[in-house]
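Would you be willing to look carefully at the protein I have copied below?

:::
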Amino acid sequence: MAKIIKLDEHLSNMISAGEVVEKVSSVVKELVENSIDANSDNIEIHLTNSGMKEIVVIDNGDGMDKEDIKLSFLRHATSKIKNQYDLYRINTLGFRGEAIPSIAAVSDMTIKSNPGSEGYYVRSKASKMIEEGTVAINKGTIITVSNLFYNTPARLKYLKRENIELAGVVDIIEKISISHPSIRFKLTNNKKIILQTNGNGDIKNIFGNMYGANIIKKIIHNEVESNGAHINTYIVSPEITRARRDAITLVVNNRCVKNQKIQNTVIEAYDTFLPVGRYPIALICIDIDPLLIDVNVHPSKQEIKFSSIDELIIMISNLIKDSLTVKPVIPTINDVKSKPMYVSDTITDDVEIPFVEPISSKSDETYKYKGNSSFFKESVKEYKEPIKEYSEEVLRKLYEQDVEIKVEERLPYLEYIGQFGGTYLLFQNEDGLYLVDQHAAAERIRYEYFYEELGKSNQEKIDLIVPIIFDVTKVEYLFIMDNLDTFNNLGFKIEEASEDSFYIRTIPLWAQKESTEIIEQIIKHIVNNKVIDIRKIRNNLAKSISCKGAIKANKKISLDEVNTLMKNLAKCKNPYTCPHGRPSIIKLTNYEIEKMFKRVM
Protein backbone atom coordinates (compact mmCIF):
# COMPACT_ATOMS: atom_id res chain seq x y z
CA MET A 1 0.00 0.00 0.00
CA ALA A 2 1.40 3.42 -0.99
CA LYS A 3 2.61 5.63 1.86
CA ILE A 4 2.52 8.88 -0.13
CA ILE A 5 -0.86 10.52 -0.58
CA LYS A 6 -1.99 13.74 -2.24
CA LEU A 7 -3.30 16.23 0.31
CA ASP A 8 -6.73 17.67 -0.34
CA GLU A 9 -7.13 21.31 -1.34
CA HIS A 10 -8.35 22.51 2.07
CA LEU A 11 -5.44 20.95 3.98
CA SER A 12 -2.98 22.38 1.43
CA ASN A 13 -4.48 25.83 1.96
CA MET A 14 -4.22 25.47 5.73
CA ILE A 15 -0.53 24.57 5.41
CA SER A 16 -0.02 27.54 3.09
CA ALA A 17 -1.84 29.75 5.59
CA GLY A 18 0.87 28.93 8.11
CA GLU A 19 3.39 30.74 5.88
CA VAL A 20 1.22 33.58 4.57
CA VAL A 21 -1.14 34.25 7.49
CA GLU A 22 0.65 34.45 10.83
CA LYS A 23 -1.33 37.16 12.61
CA VAL A 24 -3.87 39.90 12.05
CA SER A 25 -1.34 42.24 10.45
CA SER A 26 -0.37 39.67 7.82
CA VAL A 27 -4.03 39.28 6.79
CA VAL A 28 -4.40 43.06 6.52
CA LYS A 29 -1.16 43.31 4.53
CA GLU A 30 -2.25 40.74 1.94
CA LEU A 31 -5.73 42.25 1.50
CA VAL A 32 -4.46 45.84 1.24
CA GLU A 33 -1.80 44.83 -1.28
CA ASN A 34 -4.52 43.24 -3.42
CA SER A 35 -6.45 46.52 -3.24
CA ILE A 36 -3.37 48.45 -4.37
CA ASP A 37 -2.83 46.04 -7.29
CA ALA A 38 -6.48 46.69 -8.28
CA ASN A 39 -5.55 50.37 -8.89
CA SER A 40 -7.37 51.71 -5.85
CA ASP A 41 -6.65 55.24 -4.66
CA ASN A 42 -8.85 55.05 -1.56
CA ILE A 43 -8.53 52.11 0.87
CA GLU A 44 -10.25 51.71 4.23
CA ILE A 45 -9.44 49.10 6.88
CA HIS A 46 -11.98 48.64 9.66
CA LEU A 47 -11.15 46.35 12.59
CA THR A 48 -13.29 44.99 15.39
CA ASN A 49 -11.37 44.03 18.54
CA SER A 50 -8.10 44.81 16.75
CA GLY A 51 -9.09 42.46 13.91
CA MET A 52 -9.35 39.39 16.14
CA LYS A 53 -13.12 39.44 15.70
CA GLU A 54 -13.43 41.01 12.26
CA ILE A 55 -11.37 42.66 9.50
CA VAL A 56 -13.03 44.64 6.72
CA VAL A 57 -11.04 46.07 3.79
CA ILE A 58 -12.87 48.39 1.37
CA ASP A 59 -11.38 49.78 -1.86
CA ASN A 60 -12.50 51.66 -4.97
CA GLY A 61 -10.38 49.62 -7.35
CA ASP A 62 -11.13 47.71 -10.57
CA GLY A 63 -13.38 45.16 -8.88
CA MET A 64 -14.07 41.54 -9.93
CA ASP A 65 -16.95 39.85 -11.73
CA LYS A 66 -18.70 36.70 -10.57
CA GLU A 67 -16.23 34.24 -12.14
CA ASP A 68 -13.13 36.10 -10.90
CA ILE A 69 -14.46 36.15 -7.33
CA LYS A 70 -14.90 32.37 -7.38
CA LEU A 71 -11.50 31.80 -8.98
CA SER A 72 -9.80 33.98 -6.35
CA PHE A 73 -10.59 31.32 -3.71
CA LEU A 74 -8.54 28.74 -5.65
CA ARG A 75 -4.91 28.23 -4.77
CA HIS A 76 -2.40 29.70 -7.26
CA ALA A 77 -5.15 31.48 -9.19
CA THR A 78 -3.88 34.97 -10.03
CA SER A 79 -4.29 37.76 -12.57
CA LYS A 80 -0.75 39.10 -11.94
CA ILE A 81 1.34 36.63 -13.99
CA LYS A 82 0.66 34.34 -16.93
CA ASN A 83 3.91 32.39 -17.46
CA GLN A 84 7.43 31.82 -16.11
CA TYR A 85 8.79 34.88 -17.89
CA ASP A 86 6.40 37.16 -15.99
CA LEU A 87 7.91 35.86 -12.75
CA TYR A 88 11.07 37.87 -13.50
CA ARG A 89 9.20 41.06 -14.42
CA ILE A 90 6.89 41.46 -11.44
CA ASN A 91 5.46 44.95 -11.05
CA THR A 92 2.64 44.08 -8.66
CA LEU A 93 2.65 43.47 -4.91
CA GLY A 94 0.87 40.12 -5.19
CA PHE A 95 1.50 37.38 -7.72
CA ARG A 96 1.54 33.97 -5.99
CA GLY A 97 -2.23 33.44 -5.79
CA GLU A 98 -2.00 32.22 -2.19
CA ALA A 99 -3.39 35.03 -0.03
CA ILE A 100 -7.18 34.65 -0.50
CA PRO A 101 -7.30 30.81 -0.30
CA SER A 102 -4.91 30.83 2.68
CA ILE A 103 -6.99 33.36 4.62
CA ALA A 104 -10.26 31.64 3.64
CA ALA A 105 -8.94 28.31 4.94
CA VAL A 106 -8.72 29.65 8.52
CA SER A 107 -11.65 32.07 8.71
CA ASP A 108 -15.18 32.99 7.72
CA MET A 109 -14.61 35.14 4.60
CA THR A 110 -16.90 37.16 2.36
CA ILE A 111 -15.91 38.91 -0.87
CA LYS A 112 -18.22 41.52 -2.40
CA SER A 113 -17.12 43.14 -5.62
CA ASN A 114 -18.35 45.24 -8.54
CA PRO A 115 -16.24 45.76 -11.70
CA GLY A 116 -18.52 48.61 -12.76
CA SER A 117 -21.59 46.75 -13.96
CA GLU A 118 -23.12 44.52 -11.30
CA GLY A 119 -22.10 43.56 -7.78
CA TYR A 120 -21.70 39.94 -6.67
CA TYR A 121 -20.69 38.27 -3.43
CA VAL A 122 -19.37 34.91 -2.29
CA ARG A 123 -19.13 33.72 1.31
CA SER A 124 -16.74 30.97 2.32
CA LYS A 125 -16.14 29.21 5.62
CA ALA A 126 -12.97 27.13 6.02
CA SER A 127 -12.56 27.14 2.21
CA LYS A 128 -16.11 25.85 1.63
CA MET A 129 -18.44 28.11 -0.37
CA ILE A 130 -21.67 28.44 1.63
CA GLU A 131 -23.43 31.41 0.05
CA GLU A 132 -23.38 33.55 -3.12
CA GLY A 133 -25.54 36.06 -4.97
CA THR A 134 -25.86 39.59 -6.27
CA VAL A 135 -25.28 42.62 -4.09
CA ALA A 136 -25.66 46.38 -4.48
CA ILE A 137 -22.24 48.06 -3.93
CA ASN A 138 -20.22 50.74 -5.66
CA LYS A 139 -17.38 49.86 -8.02
CA GLY A 140 -14.60 48.23 -6.05
CA THR A 141 -14.25 45.42 -3.54
CA ILE A 142 -15.20 44.78 0.09
CA ILE A 143 -13.58 41.81 1.85
CA THR A 144 -14.70 40.75 5.33
CA VAL A 145 -12.72 38.27 7.41
CA SER A 146 -14.35 37.04 10.63
CA ASN A 147 -13.27 34.64 13.39
CA LEU A 148 -9.68 34.34 12.22
CA PHE A 149 -8.06 30.97 13.10
CA TYR A 150 -11.32 29.64 14.60
CA ASN A 151 -10.57 26.19 13.14
CA THR A 152 -6.87 26.14 14.07
CA PRO A 153 -6.81 26.45 17.90
CA ALA A 154 -3.03 26.17 18.07
CA ARG A 155 -2.63 29.18 15.80
CA LEU A 156 -5.38 31.10 17.61
CA LYS A 157 -3.59 30.54 20.90
CA TYR A 158 -0.53 32.37 19.61
CA LEU A 159 -2.38 35.55 18.69
CA LYS A 160 -1.14 38.34 20.95
CA ARG A 161 -3.16 40.67 23.10
CA GLU A 162 -5.45 43.05 21.20
CA ASN A 163 -3.19 46.08 21.61
CA ILE A 164 -0.19 44.16 20.30
CA GLU A 165 -2.12 42.89 17.27
CA LEU A 166 -3.37 46.44 16.62
CA ALA A 167 0.18 47.81 16.85
CA GLY A 168 1.24 45.30 14.19
CA VAL A 169 -1.54 46.45 11.87
CA VAL A 170 -0.67 50.12 12.42
CA ASP A 171 2.97 49.41 11.59
CA ILE A 172 2.00 47.61 8.36
CA ILE A 173 -0.36 50.38 7.21
CA GLU A 174 2.21 53.07 8.04
CA LYS A 175 4.84 51.28 5.95
CA ILE A 176 2.41 50.70 3.07
CA SER A 177 1.17 54.30 3.18
CA ILE A 178 4.68 55.71 2.97
CA SER A 179 5.44 53.45 0.01
CA HIS A 180 2.22 54.60 -1.70
CA PRO A 181 1.82 58.25 -0.64
CA SER A 182 -0.71 58.98 -3.42
CA ILE A 183 -3.27 56.53 -1.99
CA ARG A 184 -5.67 57.60 0.77
CA PHE A 185 -5.67 55.19 3.71
CA LYS A 186 -8.00 55.06 6.68
CA LEU A 187 -7.64 52.62 9.58
CA THR A 188 -10.22 52.28 12.36
CA ASN A 189 -10.58 49.99 15.34
CA ASN A 190 -13.98 49.61 16.99
CA LYS A 191 -15.15 52.59 14.88
CA LYS A 192 -12.37 54.84 16.20
CA ILE A 193 -9.96 56.35 13.63
CA ILE A 194 -6.42 55.17 14.35
CA LEU A 195 -4.59 56.38 11.22
CA GLN A 196 -5.56 58.43 8.19
CA THR A 197 -3.61 59.83 5.21
CA ASN A 198 -4.79 62.29 2.57
CA GLY A 199 -3.10 60.67 -0.43
CA ASN A 200 -1.50 63.91 -1.65
CA GLY A 201 1.88 62.28 -2.30
CA ASP A 202 3.67 64.18 0.50
CA ILE A 203 6.10 61.67 2.03
CA LYS A 204 7.28 64.13 4.67
CA ASN A 205 3.74 64.57 5.94
CA ILE A 206 3.33 60.80 6.30
CA PHE A 207 6.66 60.72 8.16
CA GLY A 208 5.21 63.29 10.55
CA ASN A 209 2.14 61.13 11.13
CA MET A 210 4.35 58.14 11.87
CA TYR A 211 7.00 59.68 14.11
CA GLY A 212 5.62 63.06 15.23
CA ALA A 213 5.23 66.41 13.50
CA ASN A 214 8.45 67.72 15.08
CA ILE A 215 10.57 65.62 12.73
CA ILE A 216 9.21 67.09 9.49
CA LYS A 217 11.71 69.95 9.53
CA LYS A 218 14.48 67.49 10.39
CA ILE A 219 14.03 65.38 7.23
CA ILE A 220 16.88 65.55 4.71
CA HIS A 221 16.12 64.34 1.17
CA ASN A 222 18.77 63.24 -1.32
CA GLU A 223 18.70 61.17 -4.51
CA VAL A 224 20.89 59.54 -7.14
CA GLU A 225 20.33 57.56 -10.33
CA SER A 226 22.78 55.09 -11.83
CA ASN A 227 23.02 51.63 -13.39
CA GLY A 228 19.28 51.05 -13.68
CA ALA A 229 18.47 52.18 -10.13
CA HIS A 230 16.96 55.44 -8.85
CA ILE A 231 17.48 55.89 -5.10
CA ASN A 232 15.76 58.44 -2.87
CA THR A 233 16.82 58.75 0.76
CA TYR A 234 14.75 60.55 3.39
CA ILE A 235 16.71 60.64 6.63
CA VAL A 236 16.00 62.40 9.91
CA SER A 237 18.75 64.47 11.49
CA PRO A 238 20.58 62.40 14.11
CA GLU A 239 19.49 64.48 17.08
CA ILE A 240 16.21 62.51 16.85
CA THR A 241 16.74 58.76 17.25
CA ARG A 242 14.96 55.56 18.23
CA ALA A 243 15.88 52.76 20.62
CA ARG A 244 15.13 50.13 17.93
CA ARG A 245 16.22 49.78 14.32
CA ASP A 246 12.70 49.22 12.95
CA ALA A 247 12.39 52.94 12.10
CA ILE A 248 14.54 52.23 9.04
CA THR A 249 12.12 51.57 6.17
CA LEU A 250 13.15 50.10 2.82
CA VAL A 251 10.85 50.42 -0.19
CA VAL A 252 11.76 48.70 -3.46
CA ASN A 253 9.51 49.33 -6.47
CA ASN A 254 6.76 50.51 -4.08
CA ARG A 255 7.05 47.32 -2.01
CA CYS A 256 8.06 47.49 1.68
CA VAL A 257 10.74 44.86 2.17
CA LYS A 258 13.43 43.83 4.60
CA ASN A 259 17.13 43.62 3.80
CA GLN A 260 19.63 43.38 6.64
CA LYS A 261 22.60 44.51 4.54
CA ILE A 262 20.91 47.75 3.54
CA GLN A 263 19.63 48.31 7.08
CA ASN A 264 23.16 47.88 8.45
CA THR A 265 24.47 50.22 5.74
CA VAL A 266 22.11 52.98 6.92
CA ILE A 267 23.22 52.51 10.54
CA GLU A 268 26.91 52.48 9.60
CA ALA A 269 26.50 55.62 7.47
CA TYR A 270 25.28 57.48 10.57
CA ASP A 271 28.18 55.97 12.56
CA THR A 272 29.65 58.65 14.83
CA PHE A 273 26.51 60.78 14.63
CA LEU A 274 24.60 58.37 16.91
CA PRO A 275 25.09 57.30 20.52
CA VAL A 276 25.59 53.61 21.23
CA GLY A 277 22.25 51.79 21.34
CA ARG A 278 20.37 54.44 19.33
CA TYR A 279 19.18 54.08 15.73
CA PRO A 280 18.17 56.51 12.99
CA ILE A 281 14.82 57.20 11.39
CA ALA A 282 15.21 56.74 7.65
CA LEU A 283 13.33 55.86 4.49
CA ILE A 284 15.20 54.35 1.54
CA CYS A 285 13.21 54.20 -1.72
CA ILE A 286 14.69 52.23 -4.61
CA ASP A 287 13.18 52.11 -8.08
CA ILE A 288 14.96 49.41 -10.04
CA ASP A 289 14.53 47.27 -13.13
CA PRO A 290 12.49 44.20 -12.02
CA LEU A 291 14.99 41.98 -13.88
CA LEU A 292 17.64 43.01 -11.32
CA ILE A 293 15.70 41.76 -8.27
CA ASP A 294 13.96 38.59 -7.12
CA VAL A 295 10.84 39.02 -4.96
CA ASN A 296 9.87 35.34 -5.13
CA VAL A 297 11.94 34.44 -2.07
CA HIS A 298 9.33 33.87 0.65
CA PRO A 299 5.51 33.58 0.65
CA SER A 300 5.23 36.76 2.72
CA LYS A 301 7.05 38.63 -0.10
CA GLN A 302 8.88 40.78 2.47
CA GLU A 303 12.32 39.50 1.53
CA ILE A 304 14.06 40.41 -1.69
CA LYS A 305 17.29 39.56 -3.50
CA PHE A 306 19.34 42.07 -5.51
CA SER A 307 21.68 41.19 -8.35
CA SER A 308 23.90 44.21 -7.55
CA ILE A 309 23.58 44.69 -3.79
CA ASP A 310 27.17 45.93 -3.33
CA GLU A 311 26.70 48.82 -5.77
CA LEU A 312 23.42 49.81 -4.13
CA ILE A 313 25.03 49.77 -0.69
CA ILE A 314 27.78 52.14 -1.81
CA MET A 315 25.27 54.53 -3.39
CA ILE A 316 23.01 54.54 -0.30
CA SER A 317 25.95 55.04 2.05
CA ASN A 318 27.25 57.98 0.00
CA LEU A 319 23.83 59.62 -0.16
CA ILE A 320 23.34 59.43 3.62
CA LYS A 321 26.86 60.66 4.40
CA ASP A 322 26.38 63.57 1.98
CA SER A 323 23.08 64.48 3.63
CA LEU A 324 24.59 64.42 7.10
CA THR A 325 27.55 66.53 5.95
CA VAL A 326 25.45 69.18 4.24
CA LYS A 327 23.00 69.97 7.04
CA PRO A 328 24.34 71.25 10.39
CA VAL A 329 22.81 69.53 13.41
CA ILE A 330 23.51 71.35 16.66
CA PRO A 331 21.00 69.75 19.02
CA THR A 332 18.89 71.89 21.32
CA ILE A 333 18.23 71.01 24.94
CA ASN A 334 14.83 69.58 23.89
CA ASP A 335 16.52 67.21 21.43
CA VAL A 336 18.75 65.61 24.05
CA LYS A 337 16.82 65.79 27.33
CA SER A 338 14.53 62.87 26.40
CA LYS A 339 17.38 60.54 25.48
CA PRO A 340 18.77 57.94 27.89
CA MET A 341 21.77 58.66 30.05
CA TYR A 342 25.00 58.05 28.19
CA VAL A 343 27.67 55.78 29.58
CA SER A 344 30.73 57.95 30.10
CA ASP A 345 33.88 57.08 28.19
CA THR A 346 36.85 55.61 29.99
CA ILE A 347 39.14 58.47 30.99
CA THR A 348 42.85 57.73 31.22
CA ASP A 349 45.75 59.85 32.40
CA ASP A 350 48.06 59.02 29.50
CA VAL A 351 50.28 61.68 28.01
CA GLU A 352 48.40 63.78 25.48
CA ILE A 353 49.24 63.35 21.79
CA PRO A 354 48.96 66.52 19.65
CA PHE A 355 46.06 66.19 17.24
CA VAL A 356 46.97 69.06 14.89
CA GLU A 357 49.69 71.55 14.28
CA PRO A 358 49.33 74.24 16.94
CA ILE A 359 47.44 77.31 15.79
CA SER A 360 48.75 80.57 17.15
CA SER A 361 46.10 82.95 18.42
CA LYS A 362 46.15 86.47 19.66
CA SER A 363 43.17 86.89 21.89
CA ASP A 364 41.99 89.56 24.25
CA GLU A 365 39.84 88.88 27.29
CA THR A 366 36.91 87.74 25.17
CA TYR A 367 37.26 84.80 22.74
CA LYS A 368 35.25 85.14 19.55
CA TYR A 369 34.92 82.59 16.77
CA LYS A 370 33.70 82.97 13.19
CA GLY A 371 32.97 79.82 11.19
CA ASN A 372 33.58 81.10 7.65
CA SER A 373 37.38 81.30 7.71
CA SER A 374 39.82 79.64 5.30
CA PHE A 375 39.97 76.26 7.00
CA PHE A 376 36.19 75.96 6.62
CA LYS A 377 36.41 76.60 2.87
CA GLU A 378 39.00 73.82 2.63
CA SER A 379 36.58 71.36 4.17
CA VAL A 380 33.91 72.39 1.66
CA LYS A 381 36.36 71.84 -1.19
CA GLU A 382 37.05 68.35 0.12
CA TYR A 383 33.35 67.61 0.36
CA LYS A 384 32.84 68.55 -3.30
CA GLU A 385 34.92 65.64 -4.54
CA PRO A 386 32.41 64.06 -6.95
CA ILE A 387 31.20 60.50 -6.55
CA LYS A 388 31.36 58.64 -9.84
CA GLU A 389 27.98 56.96 -9.50
CA TYR A 390 26.12 60.28 -9.46
CA SER A 391 24.30 61.52 -12.54
CA GLU A 392 25.12 65.00 -13.83
CA GLU A 393 21.77 66.31 -12.57
CA VAL A 394 22.36 65.06 -9.04
CA LEU A 395 25.91 66.40 -9.04
CA ARG A 396 24.56 69.80 -10.05
CA LYS A 397 22.16 69.71 -7.10
CA LEU A 398 24.95 68.75 -4.72
CA TYR A 399 27.12 71.57 -6.03
CA GLU A 400 24.26 74.00 -5.48
CA GLN A 401 24.08 72.75 -1.90
CA ASP A 402 27.82 73.35 -1.56
CA VAL A 403 27.34 76.98 -2.52
CA GLU A 404 24.82 77.28 0.29
CA ILE A 405 27.04 75.60 2.84
CA LYS A 406 29.84 78.11 2.21
CA VAL A 407 27.51 80.77 3.57
CA GLU A 408 25.85 78.58 6.18
CA GLU A 409 28.36 78.10 8.99
CA ARG A 410 28.81 74.68 10.55
CA LEU A 411 29.40 76.46 13.83
CA PRO A 412 27.83 79.89 14.28
CA TYR A 413 29.40 83.01 15.74
CA LEU A 414 30.24 82.15 19.37
CA GLU A 415 31.44 84.35 22.20
CA TYR A 416 33.29 82.51 24.97
CA ILE A 417 32.04 83.38 28.46
CA GLY A 418 33.59 80.75 30.72
CA GLN A 419 33.85 77.17 31.89
CA PHE A 420 31.34 75.25 33.99
CA GLY A 421 32.18 72.28 36.21
CA GLY A 422 35.67 72.01 34.76
CA THR A 423 34.15 70.20 31.76
CA TYR A 424 31.72 72.40 29.81
CA LEU A 425 32.71 75.49 27.86
CA LEU A 426 30.04 78.20 27.74
CA PHE A 427 29.42 80.40 24.69
CA GLN A 428 26.73 82.85 23.74
CA ASN A 429 25.37 84.62 20.68
CA GLU A 430 22.17 86.41 19.76
CA ASP A 431 20.30 83.07 19.45
CA GLY A 432 21.08 81.71 22.89
CA LEU A 433 23.53 79.82 25.09
CA TYR A 434 25.85 77.03 23.84
CA LEU A 435 27.52 74.35 25.96
CA VAL A 436 30.54 72.51 24.56
CA ASP A 437 31.76 69.29 26.20
CA GLN A 438 35.52 69.80 26.03
CA HIS A 439 36.33 66.08 26.18
CA ALA A 440 33.77 65.16 23.47
CA ALA A 441 34.99 68.01 21.25
CA ALA A 442 38.62 66.97 21.63
CA GLU A 443 37.68 63.34 20.90
CA ARG A 444 35.95 64.38 17.67
CA ILE A 445 39.00 66.36 16.52
CA ARG A 446 41.37 63.50 17.26
CA TYR A 447 39.04 60.91 15.70
CA GLU A 448 38.89 62.70 12.34
CA TYR A 449 42.64 63.36 12.41
CA PHE A 450 43.54 59.74 13.08
CA TYR A 451 40.90 58.42 10.66
CA GLU A 452 42.54 60.43 7.87
CA GLU A 453 46.04 59.38 8.93
CA LEU A 454 45.07 55.71 8.94
CA GLY A 455 43.78 56.08 5.39
CA LYS A 456 46.90 57.58 3.85
CA SER A 457 48.67 55.29 1.39
CA ASN A 458 52.12 56.86 1.83
CA GLN A 459 52.53 57.23 5.56
CA GLU A 460 55.58 58.47 7.37
CA LYS A 461 57.09 55.50 9.18
CA ILE A 462 59.63 54.91 11.92
CA ASP A 463 62.01 51.92 11.92
CA LEU A 464 62.41 50.74 15.49
CA ILE A 465 65.95 50.17 16.75
CA VAL A 466 64.57 47.65 19.22
CA PRO A 467 61.53 45.83 17.79
CA ILE A 468 58.38 45.39 19.84
CA ILE A 469 57.44 41.77 20.48
CA PHE A 470 53.92 40.66 21.29
CA ASP A 471 52.39 37.27 22.00
CA VAL A 472 49.33 35.82 20.26
CA THR A 473 47.08 32.78 20.45
CA LYS A 474 47.11 30.09 17.75
CA VAL A 475 43.95 31.51 16.19
CA GLU A 476 45.37 35.05 16.16
CA TYR A 477 48.63 33.76 14.68
CA LEU A 478 46.81 32.23 11.69
CA PHE A 479 44.79 35.39 11.06
CA ILE A 480 47.84 37.63 11.21
CA MET A 481 49.82 35.42 8.83
CA ASP A 482 46.93 35.49 6.34
CA ASN A 483 46.58 39.26 6.58
CA LEU A 484 50.05 40.75 6.84
CA ASP A 485 49.22 43.09 3.95
CA THR A 486 46.49 44.68 6.07
CA PHE A 487 49.02 45.70 8.70
CA ASN A 488 51.42 46.96 6.04
CA ASN A 489 48.63 49.11 4.57
CA LEU A 490 48.19 50.70 7.99
CA GLY A 491 51.90 51.54 8.21
CA PHE A 492 53.16 48.61 10.33
CA LYS A 493 55.83 46.11 9.38
CA ILE A 494 55.31 42.83 11.23
CA GLU A 495 57.49 39.73 11.14
CA GLU A 496 56.97 36.28 12.60
CA ALA A 497 59.06 35.66 15.70
CA SER A 498 57.68 32.23 16.58
CA GLU A 499 54.42 30.32 16.33
CA ASP A 500 52.99 32.36 19.17
CA SER A 501 54.64 35.78 18.79
CA PHE A 502 55.49 38.53 16.28
CA TYR A 503 57.98 41.39 15.93
CA ILE A 504 56.83 44.93 15.13
CA ARG A 505 59.78 46.45 13.29
CA THR A 506 58.19 49.53 11.71
CA ILE A 507 55.33 51.73 12.89
CA PRO A 508 53.60 54.82 11.45
CA LEU A 509 54.77 58.14 12.87
CA TRP A 510 51.42 58.95 14.47
CA ALA A 511 51.40 55.67 16.43
CA GLN A 512 54.79 55.94 18.07
CA LYS A 513 53.34 56.23 21.60
CA GLU A 514 50.55 53.65 21.31
CA SER A 515 51.71 51.00 18.82
CA THR A 516 51.32 47.91 21.02
CA GLU A 517 47.73 48.73 21.96
CA ILE A 518 46.88 49.57 18.34
CA ILE A 519 48.17 46.20 17.13
CA GLU A 520 46.07 44.48 19.79
CA GLN A 521 43.00 46.43 18.63
CA ILE A 522 43.57 45.37 15.01
CA ILE A 523 43.99 41.72 16.02
CA LYS A 524 40.81 41.86 18.10
CA HIS A 525 38.89 43.31 15.17
CA ILE A 526 40.18 40.68 12.74
CA VAL A 527 39.48 37.74 15.07
CA ASN A 528 36.00 38.93 16.08
CA ASN A 529 34.82 39.75 12.57
CA LYS A 530 36.56 36.94 10.67
CA VAL A 531 36.89 39.36 7.78
CA ILE A 532 39.23 42.15 6.77
CA ASP A 533 37.61 45.52 6.25
CA ILE A 534 40.14 48.35 6.19
CA ARG A 535 37.42 50.98 6.54
CA LYS A 536 36.05 49.39 9.72
CA ILE A 537 39.54 48.90 11.11
CA ARG A 538 40.30 52.58 10.50
CA ASN A 539 37.03 53.60 12.13
CA ASN A 540 37.39 51.39 15.22
CA LEU A 541 41.03 52.32 15.75
CA ALA A 542 40.38 56.03 15.33
CA LYS A 543 37.61 55.81 17.94
CA SER A 544 39.85 53.92 20.33
CA ILE A 545 42.80 56.28 19.93
CA SER A 546 40.71 59.45 20.04
CA CYS A 547 39.82 59.09 23.72
CA LYS A 548 43.42 58.66 24.82
CA GLY A 549 45.15 62.01 24.95
CA ALA A 550 41.99 64.07 24.51
CA ILE A 551 41.36 66.91 26.94
CA LYS A 552 39.90 65.30 30.01
CA ALA A 553 36.72 66.15 31.84
CA ASN A 554 37.19 68.12 35.08
CA LYS A 555 40.28 69.84 33.74
CA LYS A 556 40.67 73.59 33.76
CA ILE A 557 41.91 74.82 30.38
CA SER A 558 43.30 78.19 29.39
CA LEU A 559 41.81 80.70 26.97
CA ASP A 560 44.43 79.76 24.35
CA GLU A 561 43.48 76.10 24.71
CA VAL A 562 39.81 77.01 24.26
CA ASN A 563 40.75 79.01 21.18
CA THR A 564 42.69 76.12 19.65
CA LEU A 565 40.02 73.56 20.53
CA MET A 566 37.20 75.51 18.88
CA LYS A 567 39.16 76.35 15.75
CA ASN A 568 40.01 72.70 15.27
CA LEU A 569 36.46 71.58 16.06
CA ALA A 570 35.23 73.86 13.28
CA LYS A 571 37.48 72.02 10.82
CA CYS A 572 35.70 68.74 11.51
CA LYS A 573 33.26 67.26 9.02
CA ASN A 574 30.96 66.57 11.96
CA PRO A 575 31.67 68.94 14.85
CA TYR A 576 28.38 68.14 16.58
CA THR A 577 29.07 64.75 18.20
CA CYS A 578 31.96 62.79 19.64
CA PRO A 579 33.01 59.56 17.84
CA HIS A 580 30.61 57.62 20.08
CA GLY A 581 27.62 59.75 19.07
CA ARG A 582 27.32 61.85 22.25
CA PRO A 583 26.68 65.56 21.66
CA SER A 584 29.79 67.73 21.68
CA ILE A 585 27.75 70.96 21.56
CA ILE A 586 24.22 71.74 22.75
CA LYS A 587 22.18 74.87 22.18
CA LEU A 588 19.80 76.42 24.70
CA THR A 589 17.71 78.98 22.81
CA ASN A 590 16.68 82.35 24.21
CA TYR A 591 13.06 81.18 24.14
CA GLU A 592 13.86 78.03 26.14
CA ILE A 593 15.74 80.07 28.74
CA GLU A 594 12.94 82.62 29.04
CA LYS A 595 10.40 79.81 29.30
CA MET A 596 12.31 78.26 32.21
CA PHE A 597 12.16 81.60 34.02
CA LYS A 598 8.41 81.90 33.25
CA ARG A 599 8.96 85.04 31.14
CA VAL A 600 7.09 83.41 28.26
CA MET A 601 4.48 80.65 28.09
In short: The longest strand covers residues 461-471. The two ends are 86 Å apart (CA to CA). Residues 13-19, 79-87, 338-408 have pLDDT under 50 and may be disordered.
